[in-house]
From TrEMBL:
Biological process per Gene Ontology, one example term: DNA replication, synthesis of primer
EC number(s) stated in the UniProt entry for this protein: 5.6.2.3
Protein family membership: Belongs to the helicase family. DnaB subfamily.
Task of the protein: The main replicative DNA helicase, it participates in initiation and elongation during chromosome replication. Travels ahead of the DNA replisome, separating dsDNA into templates for DNA synthesis. A processive ATP-dependent 5'-3' DNA helicase it has DNA-dependent ATPase activity.
Protein known as: Replicative DNA helicase
A GO molecular function held by the record: 5'-3' DNA helicase activity
Taxonomic source organism: Sulfurimonas autotrophica (strain ATCC BAA-671 / DSM 16294 / JCM 11897 / OK10)
Catalysis performed (reactions): ATP + H2O = ADP + phosphate + H(+)
Amino acid sequence: MQDNLYNLAFERSVLSSIVFEPSQFDELSVELSKDDFYLPAHQDIFQAMLTLLQKDQPIDEEFIKKELIKAKKFDEQVLLEILSANPISNTKAYVDEIKDKSLKRHLLTLTTEIKRVTVEEELPSAEVVDIVEKKLYEITQDNQTSDFKDSPKMTFDTMEYIKEMKARGNSVLVGVDTGFKELNKMTTGFGKGDLVIIAARPAMGKTSFVLNTVNSLILQGKGVAFFSLEMPAEQLMLRLLSIQTSIPLQKLRVGDMNDDQWSNLNGAIDRMNSVKLFVDDQGSININQLRSKLRKLKNQHPEIEIAVIDYLQIMQGIGNQDRHLQVSEISRGLKMLARELEMPIVALSQLNRGLESRNDKRPMLSDIRESGSIEQDADIILFVYRDDVYLYKEEKEREKAAKAEGKEFTSTYIEKEEEDAEIIIGKQRNGPTGHVKLVFQKKLTRFVDAPGFAQGVETVYENVDTKSANIDMPQVEMPPI
């Protein structure tokens, strides 16, 4: 039984190999963690080696001994046993064996944890499953975090981050690409662990906006997980194809395309067959189910860099709590999940209709439904706003009133092929707030950078089918696929 959980000879051989050939420790320090060693004294020696690596000091007998004495963890007998062990040239098999036994010990500990939360604490089964899944994810991901990080560890990690940013050539983009130049400048991208809320009133285009970001990422080879609670996956794919091909969405829906457009569409289909896009369109999901699905997907596809939820208010709560408390639990759960998976989670949100009674209908933080918890948990809150949506609505209301009074009505509203749009940064925990100008191409349901707004030059858009976009297409509901 015990032999199945550890092998001290293997541990000594690996540590001995590091002492006799320190150059390989760079690689081994990534593959192994202190907790992978069974013997506490071996853990202390490995930790001393890590400390010496961070200090850029020699990893040899004398410096290891000095570091252990400083930490009051020096065991001369154990160090002699390691130095007398035979170093090995190929450590991979030994490391794999140590990792395997470490995993078994962690799983054994997990069984004790399951018994504790199930029998002793009598937690509900849903909470038990969530705890087990989280622990399993941490184990399989070789989670090396501890309850506390000491100052040397934090300063080392911070310097590594600064060096990485410098190596990028002082690029404005630090996190995940938003797909828009000016928005990247304002936010430096969506950061790891960020909860990003994109909020708007209906018809403003919040789904279209986030799909522009998704399209930009998947064409860069990035992985995206998309939870679509409002529309089926096929409709999302149609929108992405319209964005890529510049074929109006209504034409794609009814298959009304010329030969060039069909060829363009086939090319886009070929591209989409190779992208890393994963869509869950179940339509009904709670925070525990979402956590479980995203952890499993991230474990199977580590290349996933962002998750999108469309949209937050449709998510189900757990139990019979008041809806306000349910939304609080959902938003907090999303924030914790983003930190756990070290990736941004983007959640779309509806706004209260009360803002439409104001003269200036640009949204504010207080307009978010159940705004208290969402505003608190979010790292970035973006509002999508298009003034033309309200101008068109007001025109229709005037027309309706005129007809009711039997008066003639002359329309003054001119429908545009491209409308001005604003992305309002209502909150940014680590950056400025403000406005970013975009252009919304209605027939393509596509947002693009405003011409001349980024970098002071006119932006050129490739493959824009202006001739097709000018054709008035009937509003046809998407047929089943």
